Amino acid sequence: MSKKRIYEIARELGVSSKELIDKLEELGMPGLKAANSVDDEESSLIVHLYEEGQADKDQTPTETESPIKPSTKPAAPATRKASASTAKPRGSTRPPIVSVLGHIDHGKTTLLDAIRKSHLAAKEAGGITQGIAAYQAQLHGQKITFIDTPGHKAFTGMRARGAQVTDIAILVVAADDGVMAQTVEAIDHIKAAGVPIIVAINKIDKSNADVGRVINDLAQHGLLPEAWGGDTISVEVSALQGTNIDELLEMILLVAEMGDLQADPKNPVEAAIIESHLVVGQGPVATVVVRDGTLRVKDWAVAGVAQGRIKALLDGAGNRVEEALPGDAVSILGFCDLPEVGTQIEIVKNQGQAKKLVQQYQRDKLPQAAPRARTLDDLFSTKEEAAKLKVILKAETTGGLEAARREIASLHVEGVELDILVSGVGDISESDIVLASTVTEECLAVGFGVGADPKVLKLAEREGIPVLLYDIIYHLVDEIESALKRQLGPSYEERAMGSLEVRNLFKAPSGTIAGCYVTEGRVERRAKIRVIRNNAEVFSGDIASLRRFEDDVREVQSGRECGVRIRDFNDVQVGDRLQAFVLEEVER
Ligand code: GDP
Predict the structure, then answer these.
(1) Could you tell me if 37 and 5 are in contact, meaning their C-beta atoms sit under 8 angstroms apart?
(2) DSSP states of 405-434 as a string?
(3) pLDDT band for position 168 (50/70/90)?
(4) pLDDT per residue as tens digits for the range 69-107
């Protein structure tokens, strides 16, 4: 008995999968997914139900004619059966941008080659592949942009510089080898990026292929296949023999359709550099993928510290093109310097603006000052967001890893959330550091019984990621606990110092000076001041100046008069009460 997927039936009916699924749900068949397979009988039933539903709808009076709108009737589908395939608003949906990840030798390159050979959208110039780092494939007239730099280093490296280039990640797992270390790493990286995954179970042509084991392994890592009630789409392929490549592309289009990728050529350009190199005689050549807007020849482009006027745009086949639209991948000629991979392109009006932007990037690239000390405003801020600490955990053995995970999970510091971003067996690697650098929260790379290459340490230093290596588990746990506490920052307690009454006001060029009488305690120049009016606080801040007669003084005792100017506050009034206090750091 032959099987059909829901999306195939949708295509035969000339509607989108989403439209068909929505309709079937309305007709009492909920929970279907586009990738679900059904047998012939079910397929005929679905077609029948759908067509009957449509016929009913066509006979239903229009809203203006019907006085009562049935509550079960959903909004009419945007497209009708007969014209659906052509009426789709193509202009606003852009091709999905896809990256391929997975363990070494599992067939990433072979898969990308197989797709390129069988489904290339553009005509190759004289059969020569231009070596551009992306290409567009095509299925049923719909395009898919593949980033042709497999591996999670490229994927995460782009993210580290702020570019979320990919819409969908293909995770390649060889059926004869199963889920391996880099497969797990790739899963972590994809999850961290929040990108949908499609699993390509590759090498099914091999006699020792064991698809069941791969599915089992994937489930262990949180990728539950559809067959088991999960929502991980997987396709069994042979990249070498070209088996099921169409099916894989179908799935990509399907996931893209669900993701509803919108773009408008009229929007500002959103494009990221995915590769760049120097070509003798041509200068810097950079490959970009356009997510939104239109890139045009003669535009002034800035990418990080590189800028230039676009001299030429080349498509994947090496043809000169005048413009690149959303989803397109093109090479740019015209940059004065080599743009860094992962930087976003900005289009500006002229060379002056381009240079200005570059200067700004250069300034931003200077080493950052130490983190800003917490200010009084921060301390008084009422919205206390939970601090977060992320950890990348590596251990020598799976047993060691489990033990470390358990110990770390048992740590609790109130007000701080701890999250193990990635864990695995092996040394702390470059890709761990790159991943750590993509998160906005503080992230530690922690190793238990493992090391890190000097190159990795250097990268970590550059990215500001602390690498902590321990052989004794309790030292590791203690250090993480201290790091958690550090996230809370120091704790302060307020100590009252004195009270003042505002009796006069003097206007000075520097601001309003409150003529005060110290009624209680004392006031010091370093004190903080809280202004109380009608029993309510109206301001709190620092003392800008403290004077007795004409002299600046360090403190004034009770029973004396003084002049106080409050920083950034000139609205002080006669009758206000000022509370002087200090904040003292206390141990948590
Ligand atoms: P990558 O490191 O993931 O890019 O893997 P490659 O694409 O370089 O493939 C590694 C090896 O596996 C090569 O020798 C390929 O010919 C082989 N290979 C890739 N896909 C398949 C497949 O579907 N079937 C078989 N039998 N071999 C494959």
Answers:
(1) yes
(2) HHHHHT---TTEEEEEEEEEESSB-HHHHH
(3) very high
(4) 223 333 222 222 223 333 333 457 899 999 999 988 999
pTM of the model: 0.59
| pLDDT exceeds 50 at position 248 | yes
Cα 110 to ligand 1 centroid, rounded to whole Å: 6
β-pair partners for 279: 283
Nearest-CA residue for atom 14 of ligand 1: 105
Helix, strand or coil, per DSSP, at residue 234: strand
Give residue 164 CA to ligand 1 midpoint distance, Å: 28
Write the CB contacts of 351 (distance below 8 Å, at least 6 apart in sequence).
Answer: 300, 307, 309
Instruction: Name all residues whose Cβ lies below 6 A of ligand 1.
Output: 102, 104-110, 150, 202-203, 205-206, 238-240
In the reported structure, the alpha carbon of residue 95 is separated from the centroid of ligand 1 by a whole-number distance in angstroms of 27
pLDDT one-digit tens code per residue, 494-540:
889 999 999 999 988 888 999 999 999 999 999 999 999 998 889 99
Helix (H, G, I), strand (E, B) or coil at 399: helix
Q: Given ligand 1 and candidates 103, 104, 105, 243, which is best to mutate, with the most ligand atoms within 8 Å of its CB?
A: 105
- Residue 425 has, within 13 A of its CA and on its CB side, a CA count of 10
Alpha-carbon separation of residue 180 from 102, 150, 171, 552 (angstroms): 9, 16, 12, 71
